[in-house]
Recover the amino acids of this structure.
């Protein structure tokens, strides 16, 4: 997609889709990474490979440093870019968990709420296997606080909060259909969620949250990565160093020598 169309769709609808942003071989490595992490953390569901498990992982750094992804992010938040969140939401065949309707910003201690999310597909993701769904235009809604939402049981849902059903009109919800290597990008205010995966296919997505370095992450010692441009004096985010690849601790991947 041309960058202008991409930006227009993001501004008007609250999300945009970019086809083939990474090569199929790299998307395949995302699939391998889920297998690798499932071996490393056998007691964790693959919907819950959270930031703390990923942020020092060289393969994640390889992904977040893909210039083509950062070029799109730059169109929205400018040239000084950091990552403050990474989370795999990988849904197993037959029993992948749903994500309740929510706005991302409700969860985040960001000052100001200037942030953009990428959802990078490691597999096909469509209505059959519980793809992300968005309600276009709702990025113009007010941001709900956690206290205005209902609590969900995390043994059944990926996230612990959802917007009250009576506050949602999902008639205009759209399925974000992606192939391996495609990505969607969404606004922190847009209402979105996903259904369970009852199909026989995996559904693997990596969510990445990018901030301009003018956004302060107000959570003590929260680990961020400075990716492009420079940090801002007075905004005391905790930017970590480039990780070192360790045999046995990290998944080998094409390009891992750059982390040795
Ligand atoms: O992966 C999903 O099903 C939902 C993703 C999501 O909620 C997000 O990226 O903010």
């Amino acid at each position: 997609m041309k960058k202008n169309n991409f930006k227009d769709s993001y501004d008007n609808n609250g999300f945009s889709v970019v086809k083939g942003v990474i090569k199929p071989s790299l998307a395949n490595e995302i699939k391998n990474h889920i297998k690798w992490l499932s071996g490393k953390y056998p007691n964790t569901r693959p919907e819950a490979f959270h930031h703390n498990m990923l942020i020092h992982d060289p393969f994640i750094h390889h992904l977040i440093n893909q210039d083509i992804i950062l070029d799109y992010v730059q169109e929205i938040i400018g040239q000084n870019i950091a990552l403050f969140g990474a989370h795999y939401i990988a849904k197993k065949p037959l029993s992948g968990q749903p994500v309740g309707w929510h706005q991302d910003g409700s969860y985040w201690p960001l000052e100001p709420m200037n942030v953009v999310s990428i959802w990078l597909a490691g597999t096909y993701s469509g209505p059959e296997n519980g793809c992300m769904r968005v309600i276009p235009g709702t990025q113009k809604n007010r941001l709900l606080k956690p206290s205005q939402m209902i609590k969900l049981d995390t043994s059944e849902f990926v996230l612990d909060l959802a917007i009250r059903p009576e506050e949602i009109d999902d008639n205009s919800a759209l399925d974000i259909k992606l192939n391996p290597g495609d990505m969607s990008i969404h606004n922190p205010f847009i209402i979105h969620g996903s259904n369970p995966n009852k199909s026989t296919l995996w559904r693997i997505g990596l969510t990445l949250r990018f901030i301009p370095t003018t956004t302060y992450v107000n959570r003590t010692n929260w680990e961020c990565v400075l990716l492009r441009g420079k940090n801002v004096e007075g905004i005391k985010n905790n930017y970590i160093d480039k990780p070192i690849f360790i045999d046995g601790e990290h998944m080998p991947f094409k390009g891992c020598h750059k982390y040795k």
Notes: The chain has a mean pLDDT of 97.
